[in-house]
Design brief:
This protein has a domain at 11-89. It contains four helices and no strands. The chain has helices at 11-18, 22-38, 49-65, 73-119. The relative contact order is 0.11.
């Protein structure tokens, strides 16, 4: 009977399940991250079976060359699912940052207008310093 890594396992639990040292896990992590970046628009479940098999073979061959045991299906699927999710989040955050950066000139222009109004003595209606104390 084969063991299965729980879907919601932590990285530490997955590393222990795989019986990898911290250095071995780092290598496995890096290799799977590189592969995930190549297919960043998909979830692991939606990657065609032949492509999943090719990716797994490629990563496991590189692991074995480095003296690291090949990852079993359970650990490999868990890691690729997480790697693709992380890649998707990274892309979403980059897009949000790009949009925020694009909006920055507008904000800077508004600040410049407000500064100019302040220098010209034009009140924006919130300045209470001229209110009478009677």
């Amino acid at each position: 009977m084969s063991r299965t890594l729980p879907k919601r396992a932590t990285a530490a639990e997955a590393r222990k399940f795989a019986d990898y040292s911290k250095d071995q896990w780092k290598t496995f992590y890096s290799l799977t991250k590189l592969e995930a970046n190549k297919i960043k628009h998909l979830t692991w479940h939606h990657v065609p079976a032949n492509t999943r098999a090719e990716i797994r073979a490629r990563v496991n061959n590189l692991l074995v060359i480095q003296g690291i045991p090949a990852a079993d299906d359970s650990v490999f699927s868990w890691r690729m699912s997480n790697a693709l999710r992380d890649t998707k989040h990274t892309l979403t955050n980059k897009a949000a940052n790009r949009d925020a950066t694009a909006a920055r000139p507008l904000l800077q222009a508004k600040v410049a207008v407000n500064d100019a109004c302040g220098e010209a003595g034009v009140s924006g209606g919130t300045d209470q310093s001229h209110a009478s104390s009677q």
